[in-house]
Amino acid sequence: MRCTVGVRQRRVAVRDLEVGMFVSDLDRPWHMTPFPIQGFYIRSEDEIRSLVSHCNWVEIDVAEERDSAEYDEAKAPVFTRRNSKRKAQETLQLPPLHIKNPVQHQIISTMKKELKFGEQLLGDAERAVDHVAASVRDGRIPDFGPLTRVTRSMTSSVVRNPDALLWLARVRDHDDYTYQHALNTAVWALVCGRHLGLNEGLLNHLAMGCLLAHVGKADLPKELIVNEHCLDVEQFAEFKTYVERGASRLQEAGLSGAVVSIVRGHRERHNGSGFPTALKGDRIPLLAKIAGLVDYYETLIEPRHGHTPLTPAQAVSQLFEQRNIEFQEDLVEKFIQSVGIYPTGTLIELNSGERGVVVSHSPSRRLWPRIMVMTDPQQQPLRSAKVINLASLNEGRAPQEMLRIEGCLPFGTDGLNPTQFDVTGSESRWSLKRFMGG
Predict the structure, then answer these.
(1) Segments of the chain with pLDDT less than 70
(2) How far out from the chain centre does Cα 198 lie?
(3) Are 172 and 122 in contact, with CB atoms under 8 Å apart?
(4) Distances (CA, A) of 112 to 118, 374, 421
(5) What confidence tens digit (pLDDT) does each residue in 129-164 have?
(6) Residue 87: predicted pLDDT
(7) Strands 347-350 and 355-362: what pairing?
(8) Which CATH architecture fits 111-339?
(9) Which of 135, 286, 287 is nearest to 207 (CA)?
(10) Using an 8 Å Cβ cutoff, are 184 and 176 in contact?
């Protein structure tokens, strides 16, 4: 949800739209349009043409409008400097992503079946990453066998069903930020890569690269890792060396060049503002681009000491604003399509007052996922949760009668604990709690 307090909205016919305006609402449901996020800045004439083909009018936030001269693409070169409220950042426009021989992955397994071994799988992944990090720290050659095996199992699970492992990664309790971050980014990357149509071989490389992306931090002083987001110039210069340290160690140990390139490139940014070598655009390998995007996204939403996480919807909005700045526009939109505005595992509140958690979503119904409702309208816990599909529930209803998501809730809200309920539906006797030691 976008807060509009203090922002004046104005209805505008689509033929009168201009580049630089902020579109806050449409004359039809957002999920019936190709726009991957609810609320966005118009950045090109192509976006206006797309709006014209889908809508008669839109609402714009007057206070959010930017000087349309900043977006004069006819006069601007490929690289431009954007003058916004934030520090000006270089942008880069590239053609859409092209995946050679994309695979149309189908869901061939139930969430129930995948959850049965998923928790053990994540535990095995954590131990395998820990083993590699310890070897790097001690100057020994790592044994990548266990990590390779668990990565293949993670890939196979996400290919069969993209929701189960993502669910477990998001609701799983863990007190080690580094390992939880590595596991979550690997799962985000697999879900995104699956949506892009990458084959299982590439997905294996992608997952392993994400799991090992931060292994070079094992060589850094602990205080740099703990205070990563409040370092001075000299400290940050030393911190940035973790990328090359890790990539070099893994390369020396004989790890696949494809995986090493992901580790080496996951902090590069689309407009050249990243590190260690300030690569731009297509000079960054695709798998490294994906790893960098999901690494950034997870950093925004993950809870950790001294940091208030963004909700997934807020994080998606921030990603969307980084199109063609830090991340390639096409990749940002594909990622949003793959995980949804409200990804699996997101705690939400409905307009009825009921609260619950997102169980799964469809790329064609980004605002209407499947929800496991855990409270009544007065926020009192239900004895037995109920799973509802907002898309089918709202089919044919008038807008004022629709059940919809009002907003995201932070983890731990009023004791909401998804692991205590049956994620597969109230009619099933199976419970996730059995497999998570609850």
Answers:
(1) 1-8, 31-32, 34, 36-38, 63-89, 173-176, 305-306, 424-438
(2) 17
(3) yes
(4) 10, 19, 13
(5) 999 999 988 889 999 999 999 999 999 999 999 999
(6) 44
(7) antiparallel
(8) Orthogonal Bundle (1.10)
(9) 287
(10) no
**Whole-angstrom Cα distance, residue 133 to residue 249?**
10
* DSSP-assigned letter for residue 220: S
Compute the distance between CA of residue 423 and CA of residue 435 in angstroms, rounded to an integer: 12
In terms of Cβ atoms closer than 10 Å to its own Cβ (0-12, 13-18, 19+), residue 157 is: buried
Taking the domains of the chain in order of start, what are their residue ranges? Answer: 9-76, 111-339, 347-436
Comparing C-alpha atoms, which of 102, 154, 113, 147 is closest to residue 127? Answer: 147
22, 28, 30, 31 alpha-carbon torsion, rounded to 10°:
-160
Q: Residue 275 has what pLDDT?
A: 95
Give the span between the Cα atoms of 358 and 247, in whole angstroms.
36
- The DSSP bridge pattern shows strands 57-61 and 355-362 to be unpaired
Give all strands (DSSP E) within 250-335, no chain letters: none
For residue 149 the two structure tokens come to: 């095996």
**Do the Cβ atoms of 287 and 261 come closer than 8 Å?**
yes
Show the tokens assigned to 80.
């431009």
